[in-house]
Each structure stands twice: as structure tokens, then as C-alpha cells.
Records
---
Amino acid sequence: MPNKRTKKCSKNSGISIANNQPNISKYFISDSSYPTSFLKKRHAANEDTNEHSPTKKILKLFEKRDSSNISQPCVIPEATSEKLHSFSFKKTITDEERIFNPESSSGANKSLKGNDEKCCLNPVSETIEDIESNAVSEQQAVSNSRVKYTPLEKQYLNFKEKYSDAILLIECGYKYKLFDKDAEIVSKLFNLAYFKSHNFMSARVLASRLYFYVQQLVLKGYKVGVIKQTETAAIKAAGNTKNDLFTRELDAMYTKSTLIGEEFAAACSENIEDSFSASNEDMSSGYLMCIYEEPSPISHPNLNIAFVAIQASSGDVTYASFQDSALRNILETYLIHINPAEILLPSSLSKETENLISNFSTDRLIRTEKIPQDIFDITFALDSVSSFYTEEGTEPKNSTDLKQTILSLPSPVISCLSALIPYLTKFKLEGFLKHLNYIKPLSTNDDMILSSTTLKGLDILTNSSSHKESGSLFWVLNRTMTKFGERLLKNWIAKPLKKYCLLEERLNIVTEIIHSDSIVFKIVERILYKLPDLERILCNVFYQKCSCLDFLKLLQAFSKIKEELQSADDKIDCEVESPRLKIIFSDLPQLLNDVERFLSNIDQNAAKEGDKNNVFRDTSLYPDLQTCHEEIASAEQSLNNLKPEICKVLKLINFKYATVNCQKYLIEVPTSHLRSVPKTWLKISSTKQFSRFKSPEVIELSNKIEQIKERMKECASKAWSSFLNDFGASFFKHKRAISHLAELDCYFSLAKVAKQENYCRPDIVNSGEQVFHVLQGQHPILKKIMGEENQYVANDITMNANINCIIVTGPNMGGKSTYVRQTALIAIMAQIGSYVPAEAVRMSLFDKIYARMGAEDTLSQGRSTFLNEMSETSEILRNCTSKSFVILDELGRGTSTNDGAAIAYASLEYLISKMKCFTMFVTHYPSIIELKTVYPDAISVVHMGYILKDKDDETDIESVTFLYNVVHGRSKKSYGINVAALAGIPKNILLEAQEKSQTIELKATVQKKISELFIKLRRCKQK
């Protein structure tokens, strides 16, 4: 029977039974700050006329915020928050729930005689915070001179001491609390309310939205820790510690490179209409990169640098060790290739390396963390790495082979591994590092690494203006259907091939896909279409962090691939020509031969619902889980056995247990039969037609079922981890299958590009002849931007063993830079294995492709425009070979005309006479063109075509029409004043500039003639 002190709660009144106060606290734990109109509407029924009440004060705060039009969190004053705290989160709790959860009682029995079905709430999550926040120990009350922390605050301080560098979210029932600075950061970022609670500022987020906030914080560069309760209210109530503080432990720590797991897969798939939502690319985990430089004497300009990079979400592990100059150009190149999300560094670094990494990280919101220098010491590193790789479950198992494998790595790489192992162990992600056979060098002899200057100058992976993929070569070539295929294609583009047989194999496959009518290729395309990100799901399986639904998708995809390819087995043998494709098609079914065994034991409906308790069709392999199922079935049968006795007591023919607002096993009694209800029964809720009760026997059995379910949840989680672990034993076999699929996706992507109008297959020469001939070539990026309707002016290029240098001149805005970029992009596309935008291309293979385009300063690194220009040129001059392709755009313009022209002249002469590599040189310096007289056979001088029109009557300046075609011979002038006129420079300034230009040109002409006379006189004297 209800308690006499119970007060009636009108429907939707929002009244808390604890003190008959409006329960407004729920409006401050949501995902965003509610508008004032919403609060007013929700509180209209309260008729709270007291202007000094907490409700009114908080409403005024929201009105003030809304009127200011400034997005900011609502900070509740301490005085108001203290009043608010007296009734915050004290929602109605029934007597039955007190029995179920004795911890929720703190004094008087507060039962409810309610007629609102919504009044019955879950006691397990509603009262945890009240108990812990208000339970101040007697020792704290003794002294007023010291800060009096609540048990929960003490627990927070202990965790914060251990994890001071992380934002901590602490589970408190159905929400997660943040304290102090953590609360302030989250409140400002997400516009959440925060207020003083006891000794700290506090903010709250709903448990259902936890991983959304974790994800957003991590993507903004924060390290985030999630601290969870290690015991549930149901189990705690049945134990001896029911009145103690809930025990909590760190459940997981997350950073940008370790953001993986089933929780974030769900967060990525949500359609969240929020200004904080990130793109799919941002949501994906990036590389964790550990960089180390060996100590070097101060006088020595070069340093040995190494890195190891791991992408935990895909299982890729790569490394490199190299000697870099003081400008760190090679390190910058690798940073752009890896594009890490997080960087680990030793505590001591050279100033040059520190500046480069700081500048690179700041621009891209990359998180950096310093590691103690001792961990990188090679003696310590060898011991710690050897110990790690001799643990059980590590490959290779033979200690001799292991030692040889480790010692074969460069010592700086071993130092990086020494730092990565303990760091990844904190996140339980060290598994991939245990397989040394899968740690690969970033660069091999089969491919070339495009320099950072080339990647940026030619817009290879991103455009140079907004740094987005749109407007890049990757944007042009990316027609992949899968995420893992897209990642592989990006790798292909950044590392073009330089081995003839591999390049021809790719081109042959692309050609076969274009021209073949075989059903096999249609089947493959159908397989690849709309595949989930199998690579990331497989890695989640490896880490045992995969959801039931994702694992089901993985198994179904594998099963479909195997079935489809096996059905086309006879056609593959007779209709597919490429040996490489035949290997892939025959290999895939064998790699996936164990999939059906796992798929057959999954209940697909339960997997789709994420129900781990019932996901297994056969639970015999998991006896603990099976026992839980049996105990629940027994308890439910006991409940059913009570039905006849209940019908007899209530004088009913029959009845069914009702479930209302998650309250199960309710005995629903019609109002006309209420007199038959025994006094020992507990009333839960009522309506006009029915009242709902629980008998003592039902309460006991339902509590028992809840306790078993809590135990079952833990058993199911362990069983699921064991199931994933069994599948993960074949991880590398399945990873190889996904690599095959990614390779197929890249071939189909290149085939789609090749089918476009005016694309041709490049003819790769392998005879030793140096040649580069392009007929009617077009710029691939501009061609796509302009579309089919716009006319792009195509141009030719011819370079061979005799003519290895082309000097490009012409008017400003005439298309010089576009022309040389176009040529380099065609070369790169050809060596990727792609068709190219031209009528015909015949070329020999380049071992390196360099492009130094434009100029800009790097103030954060203390490097001027000219220093950047010179450092990039220095890198090219030091590393190019006779088989390289070099593009230099207006070298020397960052300094005085004389110095710039001299440097440009000397650099170009070195490339022509010493290196004898193919070179395209854009310039406005007349003296550079004079090299044509020194090397008449090796140099071809061209300019971009234009038409001069009549002079303007007002400015006396000729107008120029650009034709954008390549014309042999030098350009008369650069026509810079014409460009200035197009830019809107005032006419009086243009006239003065025109006059000054004519004067300078006249002086230059006179000086040139005088120089020619002196040269003739000197020759005459020598004779």
C-alpha cells in the first residue's frame, strides 16, 4: 500500500516528490542549451510566481543569453546552483524500487501514489549522483578549515592525479559528469550549461551521447578518458557494499590516432545535424607517428632521423630511416605522405626539427606528445623491444630469427618502437606491433617518393589554396567504390612506380577492364559496390572492439564475395587474361574459407539489434552465458506459475503481466477489482481504468531476473570477445583478402578515368632511350574543373636525348605555369599506371620527379621566401639524376634581379651540362635565354602565344589577348603592365610605369650593344 506521506503528482507537472519543488535540473544535462521559449513552455504548469526562485533566476539567465545573440554556455551563479542542487535530479522513486535498490533510500520512505505512467523511472540510474554527492564523511565535517570534498569529488581528484593530461568523463548513472577545468572546456566548446556543485564547476552529458562528445573532443586535439562504474546498482544492492561509494575505473583513453571501436562506428553513421560534426574523413582514425633523431655534433649540419607510423584502424605499420639536411626537407616530405593525426616526440629535439613539426602540427590540428628521452636510448630500446617480441603470442617465435629481425632494423627505428610499445599498450592497441613481418618500409626500390615540394606544387593530394581534396590529382583519379580502395589509391598516387614490369602490369589490367565484355568484371564491380569499410571493421575485430552489427556486415560481405567468385570460377579461367587478376580471383575464396563457420553461429536479428545476450545460436561453447539463459528461463517460468494464484486472489479468469515504461511483470488490476488486492502488494502506478501492482513473490523473482541479466551482460561480453578473438586468429589472412579487394577497386577506378574523352594509354619505353613526347596534352585537373563544354587548349612537348631542356617564356597570365604543371602531372599519371589526357604519350621512366612552383615564406620557421626557394632548389640539385624530370618556375625572383638571374643561370646550366636530366624552366630573365647560344642543341626556347591589339587612347598601352598555345621562340616582353591594367591599377601610375619601362629597356639595349662590342674587340686582340 502507498505510504501516507506520498504526495500526488499531477500529469506533466514536473514536481519532485522529495520536496514538492519544480524539477528543472533535467534541462541542464542535455546536448545543447535549450531556448528560453522551451523552458517557459515546460514550466508554464508550475505557476511559480516567486521572482527569487531558482527557476526564475535560471530563466532570466537564458533570456539574457538569447538577447545577446552570442553563443555561449549558461553559467549558473553559485548561490542559485546551491538552491538548485537541493532538488537536482531527485526524480520520483517507488517503494518497490526502494526494495530493488536499497541504496537509493537516504532517510524517509518516499513512495508515490501516482496516476501518471511517466512517473515510474529507473531507480538504478536516477539516484547514484544524489548518494555520492551528498554523502560527506564524518571526518570532513570535523574541520571547517579544510576543503570538504564529497566522496565522488575525492574519487575524481584521484583519477585526475593519474590522468592529468586528459579530459575525464565520469559515469554517474544515466549521465557522465565533468569537473573543474574539464567542465569549462566542454561547456565552452558545445555551449552546455555548467554550474557550481559543491567544490567544483560541473557539467553533464547524457550517457546516450557520450561517444559523440568523446569523438568531437578528440578530433579537436584533446586526450579524453572515460571512467565507468565497475558495478551496477542491481548487483550492488544484493551485496554487502550497497551503501558504499560506487567503484569506478578508467574504461578507455582516446586520442586522435586511437579513436576506434564499435561506439565510434555508430557515432560516424549517425546523421547528426550539428555544427561540431566532422566529415567522414575527419572521423576516421589517422596515423600515430613516432619520430626520433639521433644526437649529432652541433657543427654537423645533417642528422639521422627515423620514424615508425601505425594506423591502428587499418593495421598498417610503416617506417623509414634517413639522413636529412638542416632544412629537414625529407622529414617534411614524409610528414606530408603520412599525414599523421598524432606525433610522439623525444623530450629533446633540435630547434630545426622542433620548428618544422610545430608548424606542420599547428596547421593541421595534429596532437603532439613528448616522451622521456631515456626510452629512446638504444641500449634501453634493444632490451625493451626484445622483451616485447619474446612474449607469448609474438611472431616470429624462434628467438634467433627474432633477434636477427630486430637487429636488421636501423637503430633509430628500434628507438621509435621502444617509445610506441608502452604508449599503445595504454590503449590496448599494441597487437599489430607484435607481428614484425608486417612492418614495412615506406619506400622501396619499386616506387618513388614524391617530395613535399612536388606534392604541394602540383596539387597531388590536396589543392594548394584550401588544402582540400577537391581540385587535386587525387580528386581527378579517385573513382573508387570502397574506403579501403580509396586509401590504397592515395598511396599509389603519392608513390608512382619506377619499375617497368609492375607499371606495364597495371596498365595491362586497366586496358583489359576497359575493353573486356566478360561477366567476371561485372561481378567484381557488383561485389565492390557499397561494401562497408571492411579494413576498419577487421581491425576492430582484431582489437575485440567490434559491434555485432559491424561483424555481421563483415561476415556477410566476405560470404558474398566468396560465393560470387566461386560461381564465376569457370569464366575466370577462360575470359580473364591478366595473370595478376587470375591470382587475385583464385586467392580470394581460399582466404575466406572459414567465414561460413562464424556466420552460421550468429543470430542475424539479434546482431542487428546489438543484442550480445542472444547473438549466438549455439551457446554451448560459452557455458557461463548458457547458465544465465537457463536461470532466467527458470525464473520466468516461476513467474508464470504464479498466474493461477494471482487470478484466484483477484477473482479474474486470466491475466498477462504488463510492461509499462520499462517496468516489467506488473499485475494490472481493473478499478472494479481493487478491493481484492492484498495489503502486502506494492502499488506501482495507476490510471482511471487500471492500477498496477507487484506482489512480494513477483518483486523477489523480478529482482532475481535483473541480477541475472546484469551477470549475463558481463558473460555475454566475455563470450563475444572470445568469439572475435577466434575470428581474429586469421586476421592477416583476411587482411590479405581485403588488400586484394582494394587493389581491384583501384584498377576499376583507373579504368573509369581512362574511359573519358581524349585519354590515351601511355607508351612506356624500356630500351634505355630517354624520351618524353606528348601530343596534344591537357591539364587533368583543369580539364575536369572546366568540364566537357569548355575548350581547353592542348599543347605538345618533345624532349629527347638531344633536347633535354625547355625554357618557357611569355607574358604574365599566359599559361606558363599551367603548361609545365600539365607536363609533370601527365608524367606522374603515366607512372601510376593510369591513362593520361592526351592524344598520344611516349615516355621513358623517370626515377624522380621534382616540381618547384611559386614561392612563399614560412615565418613560423624563420624562413623567408627566398630561403624557401633556395632550400627547395638545393634539394633538387643534390638529389636529381640523369633520369629525373625537373620543373623550376621562375627561380630567383625572391631577391634582386642581378642575384636572381645569376642563381637561375648557374642552376639551369648545372642541370643541362652536369645532370643532363629533362628540365622545364619558366623565366622572365632575358639572360637565361642566352644559354641557348651556349647549348644550342640541348635547349628549346618556347613562349605562350598571345595577340597584341591596338593601344588604348587614354593609357597608350597595348592590350594583350592570351592564346595559351605553345609557340617556338622567345617572347618579346612579359607585358606585366598589361596585367597591372587588368588588376585595376590607376591610369596615371600605369602611364608612369610605361614610361619608366621604356627607359629601362632602352638602357638595357644600349648596354647590350656595348657589351657585344667589347666582346668583339677582345676576340680581335686575341687573334
---
Amino acid sequence: PEYIPPAIRSPAPPSPLPLPSGLALVRKTVVPTLFIGLGGAGRQALSAVQEQLRAAHLDAKNQPYRFLWLDLDASLPQTELLTQRGFDNVRELVAPKDIRQAAQYRPLPNKPLPAHLNWFNPRDYLDATRDELELSTGAKGRRVLARLALFQWLNQGQLVTALKEEYQALLKNTSVDGNRQIILFAERTGGVGCGWIVDIARLFRRMARQGQLNRQQFVPEIIGVLSSVPDYRQSLQQQQNRHALDKEIETAQMAGAFPQRVTYRPDDELLDRTDTESPFNWLFSVMGQEPSLAAIQSAALSAILVERYPRWTVLSHDKGQCFSVQAQGIHVMPDLDYQLVKREVLLRLLGAEVLLDLELDPASQKLVVKPVSESQAEKLLIQWNRNEQPKGTPWQLLLYSVVGREGSAQFFAVMAEKGHPDLVWFQQALVASLTRQLRGHRSDDGRWVRTWMPGEAVVALRLFAERLEQRVKPQTPSGELTKIVTQVIDLTRSAATQLQHWLTEFAPLYKEIGQQQRQFAQQRDTTKNRQGQVFIDESTNDKSANDKRIVQWANQALQQWVGSVDITSALCERLFFTARLDKNDVVIVLAVYVEDRQELSSAQAAKKLLESYTDTAAQQVPTLKIEGALAHIEVKKLQQLTRDMVDAEHNAEQVVMVMPTVAENSKMAPVLTAFRKRVPEPAGQAQAQYCYGDDHSAILRIELQTERLPEAPGNLPFVQAAEQAAEAARQRAIHQFQTELAIFPPALRIAISHPEAFRSFSRAYKAGHIVKPDTARDERGIVQWVFGEQFLTFGDANSLADAAANYSYLIKNPLTTFTECEQQGDFSKLETWKASGGLPEDEDVFVLAAMTIED
């Protein structure tokens, strides 16, 4: 007989949901940036920067950022830098074990010291124990040992290779205007950061210089960010480290005027070179009561420096100077709110209302299929038979045979009377009927109702197969019908096994999402209570209330996506398990009707697809933008926020306030304008420059002031050759003149670091060959120092120390003896100082004192 194909009676497929709509927010391209953290504080800074940028970009992928962390401390975890969520280009390098054990390679006093290590004094470590030379837990402020380890690491080559790779990767990032930048973070009082930052910056400057020679037109600008706690919280060692670094930076930054040669490994193209450019284009210092608070300051500055217009505004001051930065801001937590809502939406899609009937087993704490009792399984079978339409078809009679009073008798009688369809018909009937049960149906009130959840389907299918095996198959006449029943049993068990496999696959994924949800909630609670940042936050200490807020936002996002307040019904209709035939076997897949029909064959693939939807849908969270949060704040709190943006006691020379860009006709434009007008302009501060960027997670206000270096004490732990040589000369001068002398000026320190040239300069001056006659004037009419017909100074840099420094560079073959002129060198300033005592006020006195002890 002719039987109607089962598929004809299947309901029509649902209309697909549209793709969810996200934020209509297009950011301008940021400046490609390589962020480098040195030491433990550098690591903290990188973590804070990542958090700030995640909020600014709202989980945007493929941003042109790279992160590199360098350290000696092997005790810090090297798994994740905070979290790498959203950032793929994160690299962590800890020096190998042999580098961290300085006892293996430190120079010994009884052996010749290599020329490129002349800054290291082996006698200082003559009695050091092996433990004192162990650096595996960090340098602990020992910047001299830290720099020795850096030289050893560079000498082995791995670090140089890594630095080159990161530099080339930065250059490969597309830049709309050619600008790229390297930002280095270091603690200015520690060991690794304080001891390495000048050298790492110098090496990148050399790479940039080589790029210029190879006609790479735009080379990265290098920015140093130095952090510290207040002076009163620093130990004596930390204070000495800071003063030493300050002086070394002061000297290194003069490389453009006074070329300096620093050798890390002799005869190496990169590591042995004369530097003719300053290592840093810009220098900033930040301070916090704790290192973590200083890291937050670094992150706020970095968030501004990656945006082109705000960056240009901040960097409009003179290059080379170090500016202290104080950042204030108000923030929202778009990234954390977004992550929470995104996972809440995903849990809704996968949860018991829509797709999976899983629950947590209290004993094992594992997700298991919600148990179904024997009586419930019986009801499911009866329901299946009741739902099957029309009645009297071979398939409905086969269903009835396992639940009806007559058992299989009616099925066999009808099949004997009318004949039975072939095996393919029964296969199609099983697939169509099972799909209807899994998909669900529309109820009388118009809602879509899931008939079977997958866990229920597993139990029902297994009971159906078992009863066919026990009640129907033994009574089946031999022949074709026996094969049909046997095949239906096999296909039913196969379907049950596959559904069970789906549940088994989904369970750990679902649990992982729930764990992430809890972790993000904890992180949000920690973040909102963190010192150093002000957050606009409506959450409370009531966890249940906060959870309800996330659920409410998730509902808003889902309603906007499905276009209905009946979210569950809309999702159930378009997200369901379905069965299909494939080479005489049944295959269970997940059908998803979004934009078009898609079939997924694994839980991982399904999770990935659904995440692509929830990523976009969750962007409807109202607090994702600072202006949206400001719009709902009461006036009293708004006034307090604007007052907190300003430190009236800080005498800032430059003030920059960065606000998000909104369209002029946007309803948020008046909100931001009103906020800006409320921010006070205290007397004694420069008037704020307002600029607009693309970061909608914060409003930032930074105050900049030229850093005035305090007078440094003596006996500092210098690691740069110029400072080491100048310090030795200063100590000899103190011994000879029996009085205190301040640290020599930077130009003199550079000159003394070239001992043969400085000795020649000293003798030439004493003999009267280096003079400053009234006739030796430059184009501006400024009197300059000369050596014969060679000008030794230029422009306003016309001190005797400048002359000494230029002599070492300009005079290629310095003489050792000179004939005495009629008018010899003038040492009257030195004699006056010796007679009066006290600290010299004229820098020339330092030069004259250094020349006196030279011979």
C-alpha cells in the first residue's frame, strides 16, 4: 500500500532570528604600541594597562598592541599576565637559570676585567656568598647585579633575538600616520627595572637608528614611565637607586649632543655602537602610595597615549624632560559588565529553559542530567504516543504497541491486513517523530513549548527500545517486519546514545561558563572597591541584588535580539536538537535558526557559534559607556565626582582632560558638556586642555609638571660607565680638597668617561690651548670655547663641562703633551672656591677640580 511520507506531516521550519545588533561604535585606529614591563612593578603596570585597554576597547580583538615582560624573578607565575583575554600578543621572558646565578659568571678581582664591564667593581662582591649572588627570586634592589645579569643574558643572544622579534612585529602593525611607539614601565627604585630601563631603551633606539639607515621612514618613539612610592616610604637603598637612575638618565639623554659609546658585547653590530640619539623621546614619572596604585597611574597615562589626538596634546611639551604625572578619572566597568551579561545570555541559551536539562549534583559537584524516574519515563512514552498524529499510521501503532493495553496485537493485525511500509519509511517516521518531540510545539496560548528536553528524550528512547526488544520483537513474524523492528530498536538506541553524548559534552562547557561568571563577579566586586580609581557603579554589597541586575540586563539584550518579551518561546522555537538520516543511521545535530539554518555536530562548535551571537547581544548593557552612566547620576553625587577630578594643591604646568567623542546631536552630548563645566579650574594650575577620544569607559584628567631632581647624595650604586668613572674622580677630588663635592654635572660625567680624551683636554687647558676669547663668537654672538680653530661649544651649551664633553668626541686623536702658551689655563674660580669653602655654585669649578686631580 502507499503510505504518506512521514516528512510531509512535519511542521514548517521556523523563521530565523536576525543577527543581534551591537553598539554602533567605530573607534579610530589607535597608535600601534609595544608595552614593555621590567621587573615586578613592570608586570603590575602591564596588567593595569591591559585592564584599562580592555575597558576602552570592549573586548575588541586584533588591536595593534604587544606586551613584553622581562624579569629575573622565576618565582612569579608565568602562566597568564593577569588574563590574556582580548590580547594575543603577550610574551613573558624570565632569564634562564644560569643567568639568575651570578656566582657562575661574575668577574673576579684577580682576573683582568673586560673593557665593556669596566662599570662593575668585582671587589664589591669579593666576600659575597652564593645566596647573595642568587637572583632567582628577583634582584631585590641590587641594580648592579641586575645589570650584570642583563649583560650576560644579552651576550647569550636569546634576549637580543626576542627584542628584535618584538620590534619587527611592532613595525608590521599598520599605522594610519606612520606613528608607532614603545612604552617601557619600570620601578625607579628597584633592581631590574631601575637597572635595565636605560639599556633596553637604548637597544631599541639602536634598532630604530638602523631602520632609519635602511630607509624605514617612521621609526617608533620611545617613552619611559618611571614609577615609585613616595620618598618617605622608600628605604635608603631605594632612595640611592632612584638618585643613581636619575643621574644616569640625565647623562644618557644627552647622547644627541654628546655621542656616547656603550658596549654590551664587543664587535657586535647592535651591542657595540656609539649612540648619537637619546634613548627616550619622552619620560614620565608616576607615584602611588602602593606599587599597585602607581600601576593604575601608568595605565591611565597609557590609555591616553594610544589615542592619536589626546596623545598629541599630552606630548606637546619639550622632549627629553621628565614630567611627573598625576591622573584622576571616573570609570565604568564595561568589560566586566559585558562579560557578566554575555555569559548570563549564554547560560540562558544553554540552560533548562531552552536547551539542556542539566543540574548540579550536590555530592560530586558535577553537572549531571536531571534524573527521570521510571514513572516519569512511562509518562513520556505515553505522551509521545498521544502527540503522534494522525492516529492509525504504522508508526503511531508501533508507538502504541509499547504503551497500550492491547500491546503489539493491534500493530501486527493492521500490518497483516493492510501490509507494512518498507524500512526506509519507518526510518523516516522515527526521524520525523523524534524531531517533533525534540523541537516542541506551539501551545494553545501561542507560546512555543519544548515537548522533550534532551535528558528526558534519552530516557524515553531507551525505554522505547527496551520495550520493543522485550514485548514486540519476540512476537514479530519472521521476515521483513522483524528486520524493520530490529532496525528501529538500533536507531532508537543510537539516537539516545548521541543525545547522551551531547549532554556529556555540554556539561563541562556549561560548568566552565558558570565558573567564569562567578570569577568575573568576584573581580567586579574587587575592582569597584579598589583604591586609586573612581567607578560609577549602581551595584551594592547585596549579591542577590547584583545578580538580579545582570539578569535584567541580559533580559533587555535578549528582548532586543528576539524582538519579543517572550524570550524563552522565541529561542526554543529556533534552537533545538533534531534528528536526520545519514546512510541508514540516525544523526542528532543541533539546529540553530539565526539569519539562516545552521546545523552543529559538536558541543564545542555550538558554544562557539552561540558565543558569536552573545558577544554582540551583550553590547546592549546600559553602563558600557561613561556618558550613559553619567546620565543617571543624581546632582549631588555628580558634584562630588567633578571635585574629585582635581587636586587643587598640585601646581600643574599642563592639564589635559580627555572625554569620549559623541555626536553633536546625540542626547548624550549635553550630559558630557554639563559634566565638563562642573570640573573646577583651581588657581595655580594651567588651564585644562579638553580633547576628545574614543574611549567611552572613562573620563581622564592628567596633570603634568616638570620634575625637579633633588640634590643627590654621594656613594650611589651607579651601573653606567660614565657615572662610575665620574664618581671615582669625584671621590678623589673630595679626598684631595678635603671638602664635600656634589655629583658632577652630566656633561662633565660624559667627558670623564673618556679618560684619555679628558686627560688630553686637561693638559691642553692647563697649557692655555683651550680658551674662551671674546672673538670666538657663534652666529648668535654667543662666546664659545675653542681649541685652536675648533669650536668646542655651541649655542647656549657653552660651559667648560660642555667643552670637555665635546672634546672627547670632536678630537679624534687627542695629544698627550702640549707646548705651554704665554697665557695658561685660568684656575682662579677653583682657588676662590677653595678659599671660601662650601659647595661650588659655578659648574666650572667641578671641571677645574677634576682637571686638577687628573695628573
